[in-house]
User: What shape does this take?
Amino acid sequence: NNMLSWQRTGFHFQPEKNWMNDPNGPMYYKGWYHFFYQYNPEGAIWGNRIVWGHAVSKDFLHWTHLPIAMNTDQWYDQNGVWSGSATILPDGQVILLYTGSSNESVQLQNLAYPANLSDPLLVEWVKHPGNPILTPPRGIGKKDFRDPTTAWRTSQGKWRITIGSKVNRTGIAFVYETEDFKTYELLPGVLHAVPKTGMWECVDFFPVSLSSQNGLDTSINGQGVKHVMKVSLDDDRHDYYAIGTYNETANTWTPDNPKIDLGIGIRYDYGVFYASKTFYDQNKMRRILWGWISESDSESADVMKGWASVQSVPRTLVLDHKTGSNLLQWPVEEIESLRIGSKEFNNVQVKTGSLIPLEVESASQVDIIAEFDIDKAALEAAQGTDEEFNCINSGGAAQRGSLGPFGLLVLADQSLSEQTSVHFYVSKARDGSLKTSFCTDQSRSSKASDVNKQIYGSFVPVLEGEKLSVRILVDHSIVEGFAQGGRTCITSRVYPTIAIYGNARVFMFNNATDANVMASVKIWQMNSTSIHPNSEDGNNS
Ligand code: DQQ
Assistant: This one.
């Protein structure tokens, strides 16, 4: 109940108060989705007392907050219980591996396990008496060794994990093998290395199916499988992934296309999305991606509101079988059960230079699906237009080009004094080939001055015969956009001062000079999910 409380989310995960960062150890256990997260119980900024917050849900919508799972109570994690992952073993045991920042700020890997496996809520955790189980390898900086992954099982029945690091400016990932999760062997070489990418945080490594829409257990390998590797670059604060091949014997992973390698190729998201982590949901046979969405306002604003950061909606992750070269991210289907009243606007002609309001009562908490069809004749006629266009350097939604931009304005007030644009821009090369950009323009998103108003964006693959399509989840201060079924995603944090609650509107616009666009849009109001505080009030300890 302060001035900025409208920024709280309706359906994105967040604790009741204080600072949150990386998702940790997500898993499905005895009917519950467990979610742990980097949490500062003492304030709204990242601090020395970083612990594992813990919440459970049956549906990713309604969360019950549980007591802190792991506190800074040992010499080896006195400066922080940092990020890590969960592994569920075939015999039902649950393993947590995490990084402790020690009393001397050395990054050490540690093992923890549930005190009581028959408790589906896994409230109590035991730190292994033999911790730390791993120290930085020879020649590695004591602050450059963190964030163990979920373990996968080899053909020999042993377990492996990978941990990010760096040597000079080369990002690398070490692999360790273990049988009991207590003693480990460092395998020779590295899983992968990319020069000039700096420290690799929160490495993720998992298989995707070449033929099925189902997710795969992390240990699956062999025919019909590709392996995805993801790194979070400490230097530029973005999550990069690449699709490639895992060679268990050689202990290497090789990207399919060396030009789309980690740190130089594709990102999960072109806005704010970091330190993400997937897990295999054996309940619905899918792989789910969680990502941390930090604030884009000032630290003093965070302190004033008493909290900072949200999590993305969990996203189902599959290989895009049509392109073969990217993943598809899509909000988990459970989110759709929050949809209430909807409005449809079908086959609306959006002429060049026009703006069309979409009449919905209040659009501060909505799910939008839109499809755009560019005028064929204009596409044909255009020649060599804006060949060099890209979202970030070529201007925002107000710019005018031959075949774009066109799209939606969300979190806009009636007079458009505040607006966030989610749009496409099509450019045509002299050789006739088309390129589609997907952008979010925050430059006019808020009258406030102490907030980030960058333009975000990238290219999105569009195949022959496909219309341009986008899904946008708007949740007060979050705009999460998924283009072409989730090939390219952009998440932004925006802080309107007028376009809030009932004053938030949606518009369609077309600033192209040559191409009319046919649009169909469906907008659902979204219900709020509830947050159940834990009775012991674990978040306040
Ligand atoms: N956050 C954690 C680290 C990780 C970083 C500390 C990534 O384990 O490398 O809060 O955001």
